Amino acid sequence: MAKQISPFHSADSKVYHIYGSCSSGKGVKKRKKGTSGRKLCKACKDIKAGKRTR
Ligand SMILES: [Zn+2]
């Protein structure tokens, strides 16, 4: 089971991430804390659902 972390997002993205292992979230260079009203990243959603690991 992937470990959830504090939500973070990229200033130039419309989504936020909750997994450090998220392949999409890993590409975020300047992480900003919180969700900022964004939607949960699809990869993170799949990780949460157990469909994928990263
Ligand atoms: Zn993500």
Strands, helices and their partners?
Blueprint: E1 4-10, E2 15-19, E3 31-33, E4 39-40, H1 42-48
Parallel strand pairs: 2-4
Antiparallel strand pairs: 1-2, 1-3
The site of zinc ion has 8 residues, from strand 2 and helix 1.
Bound molecules: zinc ion
- Helix fraction, binned, reads 10-25%
The number of E-state strands comes to 4
Q: Give the N-to-C terminal Cα separation.
A: 11 Å
Estimate what percentage of residues fall within beta strands: 25-35%
Question: Could you tell me the radius of gyration in angstroms?
Answer: 10 Å
Largest sheet: number of strands, sense, barrel closure? 4 strands, mixed
Order of helices and strands: EEEEH
What structural category characterises the helix and strand content?
Answer: alpha+beta
> What is the molecular shape?
globular
Structure, explained:
The chain is α+β, with helices and mostly antiparallel strands and 54 residues long. The protein has one domain. It is built from 1 helix and 4 strands. The chain has a 4-stranded mixed β-sheet. Bound molecules: zinc ion (ZN).
List its traits.
single chain, 54 residues, alpha+beta, 4-stranded mixed beta sheet, 4 strands, 13% helix, globular, binds zinc ion
